[in-house]
Design goal:
The structure is a homodimer. By secondary structure, the first copy, chain A, is of the alpha/beta class. The first copy, chain A, contains 14 helices and 13 strands. Chains A and B meet through α10 and α12 of A and α10 and α12 of B.
């Protein structure tokens, strides 16, 4: 039988509701797991040990009285340190002058708390959620990066310290570290989830995402997080879907295989993905070779212009007084953005939207498009968080995407695939992902 | 009894439905009125005489059979020549190289046509709907400008050539010419009406608006035009209001008087508006002095940056090949926009939105804010379309606004007031405007 800290959020929630697991015991097990594994990993910025234990006792009492706050009653979660949590500083992985004191929860944090979740604390982000590395280590091999910018969430969920964590993705900051760490990373369509109270990097590209160890947990989180928010007028009015219901008995999906991207991975990764594809096909998936639209390359170049400009905008108040103190990669990004003219920015936005629409049209005729999440396993060393290039175009298109772990390379580092859905089609994507998950059945954790 | 061409769109529609007026006779009366007045005014780019007559006959037949296409069955309308109408060129007041051949109706044109309206043709716009003047003359005095950029719609509705016309406003292009010409000009909240198929000047600021001779016609038009459009994803999902129902018996409104703006008009205009205010108060309106938020000035400066940048973007393909041929004022605007950096543009957008929200908060505690539409009557000469300064801040804030004619100055030129509502509060604004209209009772037309 799995240790308590190994349980998925959904399974833990079910046991709590059934009375066979108490929130306090679960939180205590996770805290103990943190104690055992954190020295090797370094995933946490702030562990709210006492607060979590106190809230868990409250959830215990309610559960005993048959009162349940919501679908995550008593389940521990953790937040990338770009999400505001009331009364706690948001440090954003940055020097002290960038810290903000949060007086209110980010909308998504409030929603998880309102659903009964027990926040355990804040997880490491790279500085300002960009490419400058953090000190977190990959739980599968401490000599390797866990990826970024959501380094802490990926590592903490992989190390079984917490079953569910919030992350954010502007280029490849959820799916890439999830892939490097052997867990699931998911981000829905742009503007599906409120970003109120979340550190901005580039408004047109910023997504809230989640780290979990089951597709069901991603669907559960989305069902709680999706939808309009008075504090974020940009959230779409497109109604959320039946994210959990579609997982009941998913049919073998029709998958559009992006061979041109698989060919850009290392030969080992390509060979591995090919074997996975054969396995999926053998289990009943319908595989279709899909060509990328000509505008796919534009998506990357236009998205990078938008990223640089909007980062310069988001940082302009701080940058005005602290330019010299910025970490080098985000500094370079901001300087690049400052040099772009406004009409060139708007042209990049138009090109990005057009190319995104073309990619979405391709995605819409399949249950999911399949591509690598990463071109190779996590690089050695902590000097780089790896290449987000396989995630970037889909993020820049705003399409929903999920990374599933698929196995380990000979050195024991995780491998992964990426499934991409049509805009607002998260339910269809999650159903396809759940089916693939049930075929691939990778649920190993690192020895720690 | 009023001549047929004097009827409002709503009254004409009622008579057509009652069988006491035939679409053909109405269209013929309007065409005859065009023949009589157009030589002095010059409002039309293209009069679709035969097509209008043919469609009117079709509406006759349907009406006789008791079949009515919609609320504008058989009512003539006309379009500022920035709206696409299928099969007809959209010239936009510009040199021939800028003409586009419309293969489909703009969404708003299709909606009016679908409601039974009979399009009579295209009306003069200033070049590219900006400040370079057109040759249209003010029907009240041909030595004076009718204003712009919707010069033709204002002049045609004032001259009783057509009861209802579509215009567009990015700064002051509907309300200002309406005020100069003694008719009603109305534009709803930004993104309330689709702009698909309408020439873009500055996407964040472009509004579709209407010219009419009764508030009821504005409400009728809005009830047909408001709401989502698959061709324009930017249209808001905020549900349209009961625009016509609220006009049934409007109560005396609570009006926030913007004295600081009235003080910026000429002493004659200020005195006139003061007399109107006394009249409204005498009839039961509750007047409250309202101070402008400190950020009001920012709205203007930030809005002008957004305008310049987005105009440069909208024109970039044409400007690349025809810069030398552009009219001087829009050329200057585009050049100004090209020099803005992208972060400065985003800063201007943020400042504009913040200031707009503050102004909206002020507007929301009143049924309407009252300000001048114009600082003085239409200037002499056709060299300028006048000063849009009294309209600009409200347009840049995206708030709904309506201009009502209030009388004539000693030289016989129209005077006007502007009522501004809270965002998405068009129903409340229109009810206040209808009440004011019933008190002011200005319905004179020019002698032509």
């Amino acid at each position: 039988m799995a240790a308590m800290y190994e349980l998925s959020a959904s399974e833990a929630a079910r046991r709590i509701r059934a009375g066979s697991l108490s929130p306090s015991n679960l939180v205590a097990a996770c805290l103990k797991r943190v104690d055992a594994t954190e020295p090797a990993v370094g995933a946490w910025v702030r562990l709210d040990r006492d607060a979590a234990a106190r809230v868990a006792v409250q959830r215990d009492i309610e559960a005993r009285e048959g009162r349940f706050m919501g679908p995550l009653h008593g389940v521990p979660i953790a937040l990338k340190d770009v999400f505001d949590a009331a009364g706690v500083p948001t440090i954003s992985g940055a020097p002290a002058w960038a810290t903000r004191t949060a007086t209110a929860d980010a909308t998504v944090v409030a929603r998880l708390r309102g659903a009964g979740a027990v926040p355990m604390g804040k997880l490491v982000t790279t500085p300002f959620a960009f490419l400058d590395p953090s000190t977190t280590r990959n739980p599968w091999n401490p000599e390797h990066t866990p990826g970024g910018s959501s380094s802490g969430p990926a590592a903490a969920v992989a190390a079984r310290m917490v079953p569910l964590a919030l992350g954010s993705q502007t280029v490849g900051s959820v799916l890439r570290p999830a892939a490097y760490c052997g867990v699931i990373g998911f981000k829905p369509t742009h503007r599906r989830i409120s970003t109120a109270g979340v550190l901005a990097l580039a408004e047109s590209l910023d997504h809230v995402g989640v780290f979990a160890r089951s597709v069901e947990d991603c669907a559960l989180a989305l069902s709680l997080l999706a939808g309009p928010d008075p504090a974020d007028p940009h959230v779409s009015a497109v109604p959320p879907g039946p994210y959990l219901a579609v997982l009941a008995a998913p049919a073998p999906p029709r998958i559009g295989v992006l061979g041109a991207l698989i060919a850009q991975a290392t030969p080992e990764m390509a060979k591995h993905l090919d074997a996975i594809l054969r396995e999926l096909e053998g289990a009943g998936a319908r595989l279709v070779d899909v060509d990328l639209p000509d505008s796919f390359a534009t998506l990357r170049t236009a998205g990078e212009t938008v990223l640089a400009v909007e980062a310069a905008h988001a940082h302009s108040p701080l940058y005005a007084s602290h330019a010299a103190d910025y970490p080098p990669r985000i500094k370079e990004l901001i300087e690049r953005g400052r040099a772009v003219t406004a009409p060139d920015y708007l042209a990049a936005q138009s090109a990005r939207r057009r190319a995104g629409d073309e990619l979405d049209a391709v995605a819409s005729s399949h249950d999911a498009l399949l591509a690598p999440t990463i071109g190779a396993p996590a690089p050695r060393g902590l000097g780089s968080t790896g290449d987000p290039g396989f995630c970037a175009p889909f993020t820049f298109a705003g399409l929903p995407a999920i990374s599933l772990p698929t196995g380990l390379d000979p050195s024991g580092l995780p491998l992964a695939l990426q499934l991409v859905g049509t805009a607002w089609g998260e339910a269809r994507l999650l159903a396809a992902a759940a089916w693939c998950e049930s075929v691939i059945r990778f649920d190993a954790g690192p020895s720690l």
